[in-house]
Design goal:
single chain, mainly alpha, 78% helix, elongated
Length: 152
């Protein structure tokens, strides 16, 4: 691989990743504003699938190889910093599986929905079990990131 090829792979990979982020953020905005609440369970499952696909795009071996290659290249300051931050993010992300990402995403979506419903009805008990699930998964994720550190 040469620098030109690595830059091309990096930019193409970034476009794919950003497309997933744009789709998820737009759909999430719609969910929180105009989408019918009766569709939340199905929508959350679809969000989790897209989050899993985004994970696969981010952990694509060719993308990772390009980032690693570029991190050792002489690049303009801004691009060098972008590559450093991408590499840092990837070094964290590759510790997880697609299933971990999907499970966490689904739990967060379900928790948000329960919080929203509980807030409207002034009923914390609707949200509590969903919040506990997010906390459990957050602790699990913290341990995966660094098993020597306390989850907090």
């Amino acid at each position: 691989m040469n620098k030109s090829e690595a830059l091309k792979n990096y930019k193409e990979g970034l476009k794919r990743i950003n497309a997933y982020y744009l789709m998820l953020s737009t759909a999430s905005f719609d969910k929180q504003t105009i989408a019918p609440k009766d569709g939340n369970k199905y929508r959350n499952e679809m969000f989790a699938i897209i989050a899993g696909e985004s994970f696969l795009a981010q952990t694509d071996p060719q993308f990772i190889e390009s980032v690693n290659y570029l991190s050792n290249c002489n690049l303009p300051f801004e691009l060098k910093r972008e590559i450093q931050l991408t590499k840092k993010s990837l070094d964290n992300l590759i510790r997880f599986s697609k299933e971990d990402v999907m499970e966490y995403d689904l739990a967060c979506s379900d928790s948000f929905d329960a919080w929203e419903k509980g807030k409207k009805t002034n009923n914390y008990s609707l949200w509590a079990p969903k919040l506990l699930k997010v906390i459990e998964l957050s602790k699990k994720r913290a341990k995966i990131r660094d098993s020597k550190k306390d989850a907090y």
